[in-house]
Amino acid sequence: MTKRTRWLAGAAIAAPLAYHLLIGFGTASASQPVGAASAAAQPAGVQTFPDKQAFFGDLHLHTTNSFDAYVLMGTRTTPEDAYHFARGDTIQYLGQPIKRSFPLDFEAVTDHSENLGVFNQLDDPNSTFSLSDIGKLAREGGAANFIKIALLITSGKPLGGNADQVAASTWAREIETANKFNEPGKFTAFIAYEWTSMPGGANLHRNVIFKGDKAPAPFTAIDSKDPKDLWTWLSKIRGQGYEALAIPHNGNASNGLMYDWTSLDGKPIDEAWAQLRATNEPLSEVSQNKGTSETHPALSANDEFANYEIFDKLLLGNTPSKPAGSYWRDALGRGLVLQQKLGVNPYKDGAEGSSDLHGGLQVSTAQEYGGIAGANLGGGKLKGDTAKEQLGLAPGHTVGLNPVILSPGALTGVWAEANTRDALYAAFRRKETYATSGSRLMVRFFGGWDFSRSFVAKPNWVHDAYKLSVPMGGDLPQARAGKAPNFVIEAVKDPLSGNLDRVQVVKVFLEGGKQQERIFDVAWGNAAGGARKVDSRTGKLAPIGNTVDLKTGKWDNSIGAARLATVWTDPTFKADQAAVYYVRVLEIPTPRWSTLRAIEFGLPLPKEVAPTIQQRAWSSPIWYTPTRSR
Q1: 280, 319, 494, 543: which could form a disulfide with 231 (CB 3.0–4.6 Å)?
Q2: H or E element: which one contains 624?
């Protein structure tokens, strides 16, 4: 791996503001389609799990082939490096060996399809691109030249030179690399890319994940900035034998456009639009490096845990992003409204979590996190000046967004029969997935009508649950007369992280044609003083407490529980009321990455963020639709 350099002074700080600003014009040529493989058939010798296993991975990661990673952040990490690191290999990083604290089960490198690999030609000062006008500006560097490049590219003028050929060859190499590292049963590498649409500065990005071992030339934001056109393309190539789906990310920075009541052209959503989206986007990215997109305090005023790793600005500048239409929970409610009106729910999205890190290395823990384009381990260990920049303590950090508000990368948990492309992709499609803020929590969630309270005490309860109910991502069958649905829930802690504080069920429902929400604490661990209770007056569960020592960063698992399991029945159920339920699991407080970094370098704790966090997981939902609305 070559030395990592920075193009602009303070690039690690300015990068989030200029994020995805420069969109290029190179596209690859189409390749021939192939038939899709069966999701049921697994390669010989691959271990299978009939009752499904939890696999963890990242579906959103950038390497040196992404323009912003290469130019703004100085990333030279290749897709090969990314896959080696993800599967647990030791790699060379900044001249020193580094290794993950735990291997991932799967990963997708999602470099920006726009301008794919084109700016890497700057490595050769005599290349055609380096000698072009835009190449000269890039090589000279500086903030003024950066603005000039942005104006040139966004004006619609082509980059010139051999941009198309470079993008095509880079995409071909990315396909080849994913196939090389894909080892059925051991490690899954998906062919993927990011479609980078940002109309008016609002984030509408999607990660496109292919199921098989071949893919056509990417449909880019140069082709169209309207997600409807991306979905139309996905439907078209499906007919040619390419199976793929799209995953929206950072709805929190979409200014209300990601889950709007209208299409991008301002027209009210109709049945055709709703069906096209539902067919091509089964999941939404709920958590990542640039904040959490579950909900916002302005949308969920009664949710005491709504203010978690909030990033509520557009990706360019400090312009606030409108909360309504920007968050997943709000979208789930809007989907119920649209289902009632159109007969189709366009926002019937499962939960997914990823990193969106731009250093090519998936680091999802506070101990390893080193910023959007670095890692805090081994040879990549941060120096004091860089730590000050990350904590917003370095002079001039106001050039851009204070990077201290960024988070480590999240993870996706997938319940699948095997660690293969077919099995994992099938789980994406049926939404049997969940998001975590970075830890490897295991969450089970089933819905039905006839579970006893002791169901989770049975030795084979998971096997029986698959027979008697629907898992996360599913639809409850028709209501039983006089009965309310009950849900089987199990959460197990990450061996390397904190105990569990509580398990909650979030219910979004329609009442009088309007979306409402309620949160139920359904299982919880003990505090230091013993058992906790729900206050009968406020309806709130007593806090778990906090063992974090802010001077040393140490904490312990003397509070909380390693496993929480329960059968919960909705006490507010109405058979004629559409509803959607999902599980949120909270860990006990642990130190935020910024606290650990400040302690490590003897720096003051940043005031902009809380010193401790409660890492968490969000399950995909289970939907209930009244008979008359089915």
Answers
A1: 280
A2: strand 622-624
Q: Cβ distance 499 to 560 under 8 Å?
A: yes
Structure tokens at 121: 């030609």
Nearest of 115, 137, 145 to residue 22 by alpha carbon: 115
Query: How far is residue 279's CA from residue 277's CA, in Å, rounded to a whole number?
Result: 5
- Give the single-character DSSP code of 77: -
Whether the CB-CB separation of 111 and 24 falls below 8 Å is answered with: no
Instruction: Count CA atoms closer than 13 A to 598's CA, side-chain side.
Output: 22
- Angle, helices 227-238 vs 271-280, to 10°: value is 60
Residue found by looking up tokens 């003024």 in the block: 144
d(CA 470, CA 21): 42
* pTM beyond cutoff 0.90: yes
Using CA atoms, how far apart are residues 359 and 372, in angstroms rounded to an integer?
A: 7
3-state secondary structure of 135: helix
Q: In whole angstroms, give the CA distance from residue 189 to residue 105.
A: 9
Count how many Cα atoms sit within 13 Å of the Cα of residue 311 in the half-sphere of its side chain. 28
> What's the token pair of residue 200?
């008016």
Cα torsion 463, 468, 469, 470 to 10°: value is 60
Contact 622, 469 (CB under 8 A): no
How far apart are alpha carbons 508 and 579 in whole angstroms?
A: 6
Rounded CA-CA distance 53/458 in Å is 18
List 65's β-bridge partners, or say none.
Answer: none
- How many other CB atoms are found less than 10 A from the CB of residue 177? 19
Q: Quickly tell me which residue has 């959490």 as its tokens.
A: 292
The letter for the amino acid at 179 is N
**Residues composing the chain:** 630
| HSE toward the beta carbon, residue 351, CA cutoff 13 A | 34
163-181 and 79-86 helices cross at what angle (nearest 10)?
20
Instruction: Give the pLDDT score at 402.
Output: 85
Q: How far is CA 610 from CA 367, 557, 594, in A?
A: 17, 20, 9
> Looking only at Cα atoms, what is the longest distance across the chain?
77
Give me the residues of the chain with pLDDT under 50, please.
1-39, 154-156, 397-399
d(CA 107, CA 72): 24
Residue closest to 447 by CA, chosen among 507, 377, 394: 507
Residue pair 353/285 in contact by the 8 Å Cβ criterion: yes
CA proximity to 246, closest of 292, 310, 197, 287:
197
Q: Give the helix/strand (H/E) hosting 149.
A: helix 143-154
* Residue 197 tokens, joined: 């649409």
* Helix/strand/coil for 251: helix
- Nearest CA to 581 out of 616, 630, 617, 619 is that of 619
The 10 Å Cβ neighbour count of residue 61 is: 32
- The residue among 587, 570, 451, 455 whose CA lies nearest residue 520 is 570
Query: Strands, E, within 555-621: which ranges?
Result: 563-569, 579-587, 590-591, 612-613, 616-619
Count H helices, E strands: the chain?
Answer: 14, 24
622 bridge partner residues:
581
> What gap in Å lies between CA 258 and CA 284, rounded to an integer?
10
pLDDT at position 3, please?
36
Residues 238, 407: Cα–Cα separation, whole Å: 35
At 100, list the tokens.
């993950």
